[in-house]
Amino acid sequence: MPEKNLPELITLKRLIDAGGKHMQVDTHCTVAMDGRDFPVYSIALGNPSLDVPALGFFGGIHGLERIGTQVILSFMGSILARLRWDSTLHQQLESMRLVFMPLVNPGGMWQATRCNPQGVDLMRNAPLSAVDRVPFMLGGQRYSHHLPWYRGPAGAPMEPESLAVCDVVERELLTRQFSMALDCHSGFGLRDRIWFPHAHTAAPIAHLADIGALEELFSESYPNHNYVFEPQSRQYRTHGDLWDYLYLNGTSYTERTFLPLTLEMGSWLWVKKNPRQLFDRVAMFNPTAAHRLQRVLRRHLIWFDFLMRAVNSHGRWVPEGMARKQQRRRSLAHWYGA
Fold first, then answer.
1. What confidence tens digit (pLDDT) does each residue in 298-321 have?
2. Angle CA 156–118–40, to nearest 5
3. I want to staple 55 with a disulfide (CB 3.0 to 4.6 A). Which of 20, 89, 130, 311 is the partner?
4. Using CA atoms, how far apart are residues 212 and 195, in angstroms rounded to an integer?
5. Contacts of residue 103, Cβ cutoff 8 Å, sequence gap at least 6
């Protein structure tokens, strides 16, 4: 197959070429498929100093969910276009770091599977087991790589793609006093959701007050948005969640703040409008009509831009002292009924 059949990688390479001196590009591993080697890139721009906050965008962890990669590529293209004229953006990038991994699982995207070429679901691959009950199979299984949601062999190292994500997060995000990550997926429900940890337990995270403050900030700034903010555990729990693993390892021994979020785009709405997509495993997770694709690529740019501003200005909204305790109580009541 010619490489043109993976257009997301072609677009990413063009953006890298267009970024030139603005971008720091690393290749963390390569994935061999059908006689070709597909690189797993990370791209960083902005201030590299560890004294500034950072924001990371991740996509393509599940090969079927191409829209996650496409949304990030669209945002990267917007950033590069604005760098030519937008002095405000240049000022933003002087005081923060942006990191992109738009295509974590190129092998899975190439073969149109959720898993990587070894049959491993990268979002079930971290060495972390759920402490609460998980749904059968969906929560992660070790029976066979021929079945979905395979975690990988017990005791085996993490997959190279998973390790690449960990390397980028540990080097670019967890080394800073404040950082956030957004992982872009599709396939759950009729509405777009912003999920936050935990996935391995129903217990709230230590930084629940920060999440609650962020949700209030966004809702006040954009009161007509249509996102549902909630802990992932409200919908289902899983073994081996990559973001739970990075959050716990990155915050348990430091006073740094790392807030990993997941954008779960509601693909059921696309299927509802065109039921024939049910018979195509790729179309089940992605908008197929050109006008719907354009709408999706356009809609989430507001959320992405908001996250940039929130990270850059985190000192103005992260609650402290008594306000932090009050915010945590409100968030517990809102999401956990406590």
1. 999 999 999 999 999 999 999 999
2. 95
3. 311
4. 12
5. 8, 9, 12, 40, 41, 59, 60, 69, 109
